[in-house]
Design a protein that fits this description.
Blueprint lengths: L31 H5 L4 E8 L2 E6 L4 E8 L6 H14 L4 E3 L4 E6 L5 H10 L22 E2 L14 H10 L1 H5 L9 E4 L13 E6 L11 H4 L2 H7 L5 E8 L2 E8 L9 H5 L12 E6 L14 E8 L6 H17 L6 H8 L1 H8 L28
Parallel strand pairs: 6-7, 7-8
Antiparallel strand pairs: 1-2, 2-3, 3-5, 4-5, 8-11, 9-10, 11-12
Length: 381
């Protein structure tokens, strides 16, 4: 039993256990003022765009400066953010679910120097590295998916479209002049690993052509049953064809059943879906998660197709800006985009936004949960 001499007690295996499995507990990273007042906060308020103040029962205050950042950041930019935190915040910072980085200080006199430091840092092209904003009735930082950087089935880019859109609406990010918060989102394909289905304004990448079939290599690099099983609409079936003078195993696609999701390409690299001419974006409007004023809503398609126009996506950004401006001009205070559209009527929405209504926008989908589940926490008694 000499091996127990290290201090391990088999009767108490968790005692003094040291492990590198899993993250450390989040309380290890809290600023002292937050740790000391944890769960004892009275209220918070936005004292200026991008700056929040939280008040504790003890009288302690925490001032948070929120900065919009990219979802995909370089190590040098992260290092710079950490240097700022070391300089002003005792080494503490936090990232939000909307790709913001927040710097927290414990007194108001530290806010101005921190904000001035943040706004002084710019990229060589002139844009801010840490723009302050995204609080209250403003355009919040955009949540988005991987896009062309990492994903294998995108119909559009995510990082590029987000940069272009935020450049177009940057004034609304820095100020709080909108009727209510506007949450934007971008998903680079219909699989939507972002929150576009419940955002005020959302962009979804869409494929419009079925996958190509590389008959020459399909049977060599793919498990055909997996490719068939991956299709949610049963559009793929096993098949055989003549190639290079011999019969090869392959698949056939029933094109009128294909919904261009790319699941088959995930299972089989010989079924590429990306297409330079057919791929593009759809724009959705009116979704939200909040229960305030009205029930949560799914976003609705208002523009069925916008072509990919990298690197600046001028048609897409112009349309998003037009929708946002019409909302700003016509909505009541505290009214979200979907609430505004429903109040004036969707017919009037298409008029004021100057968008064309086509047959592609007719929604005949019925949520399977409609008859069985409660869809809101706004219960009726």
């Amino acid at each position: 039993m000499a091996f127990i001499s290290s201090g391990y007690n088999p009767k108490k295996p968790m005692e003094d256990r040291i492990t590198d499995i899993g993250p450390r507990h989040y309380t290890d990273f809290l600023p002292p003022v937050i740790k000391d007042n944890y769960g004892k906060w009275l209220y918070h308020e936005i004292i200026e765009p991008g700056v929040l103040m939280h008040k504790a029962e003890s009288g302690a205050e925490v001032y948070t400066i929120r900065c919009g950042t990219a979802r995909l950041m370089s190590s040098s930019l992260i290092t710079e953010a950490c240097d700022i935190a070391d300089k002003h915040c005792g080494g503490h910072l936090r990232f939000t679910t909307r790709n913001n980085v927040e710097f927290m200080v414990d007194s108001k006199d530290k806010v101005a120097p921190l904000k001035a430091d943040l706004m002084s840092r710019k990229f060589p092209g002139g844009s801010y590295k840490f723009p302050v904003g995204g609080t209250g009735a403003s355009v919040l930082n955009i949540v988005h998916t991987q896009g062309w950087v990492h994903c294998h089935t995108p119909a559009t880019d995510a990082s590029g479209t987000v940069k272009a859109i935020m450049d177009e609406v940057f004034d609304e990010f820095q100020n709080m002049n909108l009727p209510a918060p506007v949450r934007l989102a971008v998903a680079c394909c219909l699989n939507m690993c972002g929150a576009v289905h419940c955002s005020d304004i959302a962009v979804v990448g869409i494929h419009r052509k079925p996958p190509l079939i590389d008959h020459e290599v399909l049977d060599n690099i793919c498990e055909i049953p997996l490719a068939v099983a991956a299709c949610p609409t049963a559009a793929i079936r096993p098949s055989k064809t003549q190639f290079g003078g011999k019969e090869v195993k392959t698949v056939a696609i029933k094109e009128d059943r294909c919904m261009f999701c790319g699941n088959c390409y995930t299972m089989c690299a010989a079924l590429p879906l990306a297409d330079g001419e057919g791929d593009g974006c759809a724009i959705m409007v009116g979704g939200k998660v909040s229960n305030r004023i009205s029930n949560p809503k799914f976003s609705k398609v208002v523009v069925a197709y916008v072509p990919n126009e990298p690197p600046r996506w001028p048609s897409l950004t112009k349309t998003v800006h037009k929708i946002l401006q019409a909302y700003k001009d016509g909505a009541l205070k505290y009214e979200r985009v979907g609430d505004w559209a429903e109040r004036i009527g969707w017919e009037r929405f298409f008029e004021v936004t100057e968008l064309e209504f086509t047959h592609h926008l007719i929604d005949d989908f019925r949520d399977p949960a409609y008859y069985t589940w409660r869809q809101s926490t706004n219960f009726k008694w």
